[in-house]
Amino acid sequence: MKCRALLLTVVMIPGCALFQRPFRPEHASKEEAAKLPYPLWLPSEGRVQVPANLAAAIELAMDDMLPRDVKPPRGATPDDVCLHRRDSYDVEVAPLNDEVVLVRFLVKEGACRSEGATATEAATYAVDVRGWRILAVQR
């Protein structure tokens, strides 16, 4: 009986990994949110409208380049830590054709340079916007 219970436990434990909660961003407290002017409106100066398929392609490529659950390795340099932050990258995006969008990540100017020069281009992705998959990555 003990052996059967142990075997059942060993078989079921890896299945627990499948029940991870999906990523949800942190929300501010109600007190902090109350400090914002309501209703929230976007000023016309600086406003950018990003088409839905481009926004989704950027998110898909960013999730591949910097998965949310990956942290910098122990003993990482300050530049390595910086390069693991999503806000360290600017994005260029352009449709290649009706089915493929190119997404290029560039290290933001002035970011991640505590140890000297840092490469500016991180990666370029070709994203299939019909099947939502990554076709190619150039690093």
Pick out its properties.
single chain; 139 residues; alpha+beta; 4-stranded antiparallel beta sheet; 4 helices; 21% strand
Describe this structure in words.
The longest helix has 15 residues, at 2-16. Strand 3 (121-128) and strand 4 (133-138) form a beta hairpin. This protein is of the alpha+beta class and 139 residues long. The model has no long low-confidence stretch (mean pLDDT 85). It has a four-stranded antiparallel beta sheet, with helices on one face. The protein contains four helices and four strands; from the N terminus they run ααααββββ. The protein is extended. The chain has a domain at 49-139. The chain has helices at 2-16, 30-33, 52-65, 78-83; strands spanning 89-95, 100-107, 121-128, 133-138. It is 28% helix and 21% strand.
Helix count? Answer: 4
Which structural class is indicated by helix and strand composition? Answer: alpha+beta
Number of beta strands: 4
Q: Give, in spatial order, the strands making up the sheet with the most strands.
A: 1-2-3-4
CA(first)-CA(last) distance: 54 Å
Written as H for each helix and E for each strand, in order along the chain, the element string is HHHHEEEE
Major sheet: 4 strands, antiparallel
| Low-confidence regions | none
Q: What would the principal axes of the Cα set say about the shape? A: extended
Radius of gyration: 21 Å
Helical amount: 25-40%
What is the overall pLDDT average?
Answer: 85
Percent of residues in β-strands: 15-25%
